């Protein structure tokens, strides 16, 4: 079972690579009742596949997808959960940001039902030259 759910999650993650995320490919791998929290515990929780699609489309306007230098470092799973450790590199405006991410995905019947990410918002804010409290001002509204 582990390899099957890992493949779903890795297909999802790989769809986020490139100048723009492939929102259609990502959305196709989500369950209807999908739940997403971009950065636990600070960012808002997004409920539903349609809301997640809209949010990902916003992200495509704010930054690139994962570009050169991004890498998946580790993938572990059990019956329904996949944990992915990554280094993400994105460009936000003219600024290249690099951050370490641990993402936890829950998968049911071949579709992702939940996606939670853990990363240091202070580190990203410092790279962007903004107050960490402004990190999520443009999302989840």
UniProtKB/TrEMBL annotation:
<feature type="domain" description="Limonene-1,2-epoxide hydrolase">
    <location>
        <begin position="7"/>
        <end position="127"/>
    </location>
</feature>
<dbReference type="InterPro" id="IPR013100">
    <property type="entry name" value="LEH"/>
</dbReference>
<dbReference type="InterPro" id="IPR032710">
    <property type="entry name" value="NTF2-like_dom_sf"/>
</dbReference>
<dbReference type="Pfam" id="PF07858">
    <property type="entry name" value="LEH"/>
</dbReference>
<protein>
    <recommendedName>
        <fullName>Limonene-1,2-epoxide hydrolase domain-containing protein</fullName>
    </recommendedName>
</protein>
């Amino acid at each position: 079972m582990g390899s099957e759910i890992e493949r779903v999650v890795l297909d999802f993650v790989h769809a986020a690579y490139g100048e723009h995320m492939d929102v259609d490919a990502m959305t196709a791998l989500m369950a209807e009742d999908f739940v997403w929290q971009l950065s636990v515990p600070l960012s808002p929780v997004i409920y539903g596949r349609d809301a997640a699609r809209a949010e990902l489309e916003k992200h495509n306007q704010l930054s690139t997808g994962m570009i050169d230098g991004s890498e998946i470092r580790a993938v572990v799973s059990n019956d329904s959960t996949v944990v992915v450790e990554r280094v993400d590199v994105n460009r936000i405006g003219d600024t290249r940001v690099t951050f370490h991410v641990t993402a936890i995905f829950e998968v049911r019947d071949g579709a992702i039902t939940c996606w939670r990410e853990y990363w240091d918002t202070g580190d990203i804010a410092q790279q962007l030259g903004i107050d960490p409290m402004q990190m999520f001002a443009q999302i989840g509204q």
